[in-house]
Amino acid sequence: MDLDAVRHAVGEQTSPRLRRSLDQLGLITAVFPAAGGSVRVELSFPEGVEPPGAIESAVAAAARAAGAVEAEVVVRPMDAAALEALAERLKADRPSRPGSPGSRTRVISVASGKGGVGKSSVTANTAVALARAGHDVAVLDADVWGFSIPRMLGVQEPPAVVGGLIVPAAAHGARVISMDFFVPPDQAVIWRGPMLHKALEQFLDEVFWDEPEFLLLDLPPGTGDVPISLSQFVPGAMTVVVTTPQPTAQRVARRAALMATKMEQEVAGVVENMSWFTGDDGRRYEIFGAGGGQALADEMGVPLLGKVPLVPELRAGADRGEPAVVAAPDSEAAEAFGAIAERLASIRPRVRRRPELTVE
Ligand SMILES: Nc1ncnc2c1ncn2[C@@H]1O[C@H](COP(=O)(O)OP(=O)(O)OP(=O)(O)O)[C@@H](O)[C@H]1O
Ligand SMILES: [Mg+2]
Question: What is the mean pLDDT of the segment spanning 17-45?
Answer without folding.
Answer: 96
